[in-house]
């Protein structure tokens, strides 16, 4: 090959397996919270926070975002901001209608 | 920008894939917005309707997708270390898990359809307005997600072929990497669908 193309480091299998184990623990936690109603009226918030933690782990490690340049992270932040704005503005409309 | 022979613009390909995924985020985001609004307006109906979901199958499917994500991630690390057969094997396992997810989804849908809960069915239309909306969103969102899983299985099968024929190799794995990004995205969508349809009752 010619010049090394965008040399990023190879994530060790150990790291991936550890992330996967944490994901399964979070899955068990969210199931337990829902079934045993541990958080009572905060259960919706609780499940969504756990889902977001899981999504964050997948993004950071499986999707390599942790090792990417700030450009790509910025683009993702922009997209998520647009989505948040869309949801927020629609809810403002629904609330004050 | 050099275009010399043999130069592979992996970074550019990856940014292209991410741009596609951003459009996918907004595509599914619109449906999550619909779900949020209707859940806010029909809280009780959503609560009652969600009780009909099979939590066991939903949880098993979540575990399957999380594990398949691990497999495709490991397959990329493997090909970069030059372990072609191990990488191929992991890709095959990923496809099999994707198919298993769809088979379970099929049984879940059939369990509902046989008791008369499917879009526009006479039984469904007699339910509360919010329950009709819940099952409508259930079929649209899990259906479109299932379609993404199916597409993922087909694409990974092509990657498996490319890996076996040495088109994808140690120094040329951008396609496999981008396929992995897509598969993880499909996993993330399910990570949110799971609590919204199975847990929140």
Give structural notes.
The complex is a heterodimer of chains A (about 100) and B (about 200). Chain A has about 100 residues and is an all-alpha fold. Chain A has two domains: about 10-65; about 70-95. Chain A has helices at about 15-35, 45-60, 70-95. Chain A is flat and about 50 Å long. Chain B has seven helices and no strands. Chain B starts with 9 loop residues before the first helix and ends with a helix. At the A-B interface, α1, α2 and α3 of A face α1, α3 and α7 of B.
Topology at a glance:
The complex is a heterodimer of chains A (97) and B (201).
Chain A (H helix, E strand, L loop, with lengths): L12 H24 L6 H20 L7 H26 L2
Helix pairs in contact in A: 1-2
Chain B lengths: L9 H32 L1 H8 L4 H26 L3 H31 L7 H4 L3 H36 L9 H26 L2
Helix pairs in contact in B: 1-2, 1-6, 1-7, 2-6, 3-4, 3-7, 4-6, 6-7
Alpha-beta classification of chain A: mainly alpha
Subunit arrangement of the protein: heterodimer
Question: Into which percent range does the helicity of residues of chain A fall?
Answer: over 70%
The share of residues in helices of chain B is: over 70%
**CATH homology superfamily of chain B:** Cytochrome c oxidase, subunit III, four-helix bundle
Low-confidence stretches of chain B: none
The pair of chains with the biggest contact is:
A-B, 45 and 49 residues
What is the 3D form of chain B?
A: elongated
Order of helices and strands of chain B: HHHHHHH
**Cα distance, first to last residue of chain A?**
62 Å
**Count of alpha and pi helical runs of chain B:** 7
Sheet with the most strands, sense and barrel status of chain B: none
- Share in β-strands of chain A: under 5%
Q: What's the number of structural domains of chain A? A: 2
Roughly what fraction of the amino acids of chain B lie in strands? under 5%
Q: What is the general shape of chain A? A: flat
Question: How many beta-strand elements of chain A?
Answer: 0
The biggest sheet of chain A amounts to:
none
Question: Which class of chain B in CATH terms?
Answer: Mainly Alpha
Number of helices of chain A: 3
């Amino acid at each position: 090959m010619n010049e090394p193309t965008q040399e990023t480091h190879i994530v060790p299998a150990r790291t991936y397996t550890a992330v996967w184990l944490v994901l399964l623990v979070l899955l068990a936690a969210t199931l337990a919270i829902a079934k045993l109603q541990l958080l009572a009226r905060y259960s919706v918030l609780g499940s969504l926070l756990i889902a977001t933690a899981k999504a964050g782990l997948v993004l950071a490690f499986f999707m390599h975002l942790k090792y990417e340049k700030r450009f790509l992270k910025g683009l993702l932040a922009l997209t998520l901001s647009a989505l948040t704005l869309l949801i927020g503005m629609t809810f403002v409309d629904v609330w004050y209608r | 920008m050099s275009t010399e022979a043999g130069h592979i613009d992996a970074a550019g390909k990856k940014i292209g894939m991410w741009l596609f995924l951003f459009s996918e985020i907004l595509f599914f985001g619109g449906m999550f917005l619909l779900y949020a609004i209707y859940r806010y307006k029909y809280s009780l109906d959503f609560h009652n309707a969600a009780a009909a979901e099979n939590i066991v199958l939903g949880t098993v499917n979540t575990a399957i997708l999380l594990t398949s994500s691990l497999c495709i991630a490991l397959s990329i690390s493997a090909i970069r270390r030059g372990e072609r057969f191990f990488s191929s094997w992991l890709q095959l396992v990923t496809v099999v898990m994707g198919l298993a997810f769809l088979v379970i989804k099929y049984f879940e849908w059939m369990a509902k359809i046989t008791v008369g809960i499917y879009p526009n069915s006479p039984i469904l239309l007699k339910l509360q307005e919010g329950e009709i909306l819940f099952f409508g969103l259930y079929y649209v969102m899990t259906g479109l997600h299932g379609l993404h899983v199916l597409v993922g299985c087909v694409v990974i099968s092509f990657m498996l072929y490319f890996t076996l024929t040495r088109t994808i190799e140690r120094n040329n794995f951008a396609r496999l990497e981008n396929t992995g990004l897509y598969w993880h995205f499909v996993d993330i969508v399910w990570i949110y669908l799971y609590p919204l349809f199975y847990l929140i009752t």
